[in-house]
Specification:
Elements lengths: L3 H24 L8 H13 L5 E5 L3 E7 L5 E7 L26 H16 L8 E7 L7 H7 L11 E11 L3 E4 L1 E4 L1 E10 L14 H18 L7 E10 L9 E10 L2 H21 L3 E8 L4 E3 L1 H15 L4 E4 L10 H5 L5 E9 L18 H21 L1
Parallel strand pairs: 3-4, 3-5, 5-14, 6-13
Antiparallel strand pairs: 1-2, 2-4, 6-14, 7-12, 8-10, 8-11, 9-10
The chain binds zinc ion (2 copies).
One zinc ion (ZN) binds next to loops.
Length: 398
């Protein structure tokens, strides 16, 4: 019966292979929903391992595979495959070869870790007490690839009892795993606001409606509402990232456009902010002589780490890394993750782990979504592969 020691050893032996795979993916990043070569690479590697239960083209470019042991119970592991529109500036020898495209969110590492877990799990044979569903998803960066895969049936035949994902975390020391109890990523909604006034001469504002002054009131009122009218215990942030309006210094602007993002955890706080934008703020602008149009695009839901799933992942991590290798993370992230769809739409108990990548001495300190983000793959990949594999084993032994 393969034990944790064996798993750790296999992950270490696989390291040169994992590094080569990750560097190949890193050099050939693909945008969301166009992960054709990445998906083909994943399928080839899985076939090389002798895994033959593979479905391609799930949610367009997603891949689902099953590693079968003894019994019918099933748990799922998920990795994402897409890259970002950024020009890499790491100077690494394995830097992106695609102009303006970069694996800046570590999805190359996630995909590789899941391939490593597939290799380990497939060697376990019947000592694996169930089925592990491997989900390689497209389009995490804004295209809701998880939702597309769910709608395409990735959680059926068999349905998993739980699902786990890992995400790189540059604030966390490499070689460690971070666990967050409760909320772990936020709901993210996009807002587009148009404040409509009426032009007039700058010297006669009473003959028009000043969209810039109205916009200033609207911005202040919105931030007031968020800070003073929602429960301070509920974490939230509203950021207005763009504002544009006016044509000339001595003409009243007749239109100002504002865009931003609303990040929340609790649905009631999210709904209160959205209601304020759509109703009370619109009324306020109307009372001051203008009009307001608002478009809200609901983004990814917030993600709640299910206690028992997180506990099994924690046990799996402690077995491999010891107590010192497992960090209880005090705070969640205000970032969002479409992994949350597996919980909200798929209704599968879920947990997301953080995979530490920080190494000050080697300069691996840069945040994800920056042109300098990188990680020490020789350290991070075997940890990620073993954690994925052992978490699946622990969940199946439950
Ligand atoms: Zn990202
Ligand atoms: Zn990501």
């Amino acid at each position: 019966m393969p034990d944790t020691h064996w798993m750790k050893q296999r992950a270490e032996e696989l390291t040169p292979q994992l590094v080569a795979w990750r560097r190949h993916l890193h050099m050939h990043p693909e945008p969301s929903m166009k992960e054709h070569n990445t998906a083909a690479f994943v399928v080839e590697r899985l076939r090389d391992m002798g895994i033959d239960e593979i479905e391609e083209g799930i949610g367009e470019t997603g891949v689902v595979a099953h590693v079968r042991g003894e019994g019918d119970r099933c748990v799922a592991l998920r990795a994402d495959m897409d890259a970002l529109e950024l020009t890499e500036q790491t100077g690494a020898e394995y830097a992106s070869t695609v102009e303006g495209m970069m694996h800046a969110c570590g999805h190359d590492a996630h995909t590789t870790c899941l391939l490593g877990a597939a290799a380990i799990l497939s060697e376990m044979g019947d000592s694996l007490s169930g089925i592990v569903k491997l989900i390689f998803q497209p389009g995490e960066e804004g295209e809701a690839g998880a939702l597309r895969m769910i709608e395409d049936g990735c959680l059926e035949d068999p349905a998993p009892e739980a699902i786990v994902a890992a995400h790189v975390q540059p604030d966390l020391q490499q070689g460690t795993v971070g666990l967050t109890r409760g909320f772990v990523t936020a709901q993210s909604d996009s807002i587009e606001i148009a404040i409509l006034g009426e032009s007039s001469h700058a010297a006669r504002p009473h003959q028009g409606a000043d969209a810039i002054s109205l916009a200033a009131q609207a911005v202040t009122a919105l931030q007031h509402f968020v800070a003073r009218c929602t429960d301070p215990i509920h974490r939230k942030v509203v950021t207005l990232g763009t504002i544009r309006g006016g044509t000339r210094r001595n003409i009243l602007a007749d239109r100002v456009e504002i865009s931003g993002t609303v990040r929340t955890y609790e649905r009631e706080t999210r709904d209160a902010i959205i209601d304020f934008l759509g109703n009370r703020l619109r009324t306020l602008v109307g009372e001051l002589g203008g009009r307001m149009e608002v478009t809200i695009s609901e983004g990814y839901p917030s993600l709640w780490n299910e206690d028992w799933v997180l506990d099994h992942a924690g046990d799996a991590a402690r077995e491999l890394l010891g107590d010192e290798g497992v960090v209880d993370m005090q705070y969640p992230s205000m970032g969002s993750e479409d992994f949350a769809f597996f919980q909200h739409v798929g209704e599968i108990p879920a947990a997301m782990l953080r995979l530490g990548t920080r190494d000050e001495s080697s300069g691996f300190v840069h945040a994800v979504h920056t042109t300098h983000f990188d990680l020490n793959d020789e350290v991070v990949l075997p940890v990620g592969a073993a954690i994925y594999a052992n978490t699946a084993v622990k969940l199946l032994q439950r």
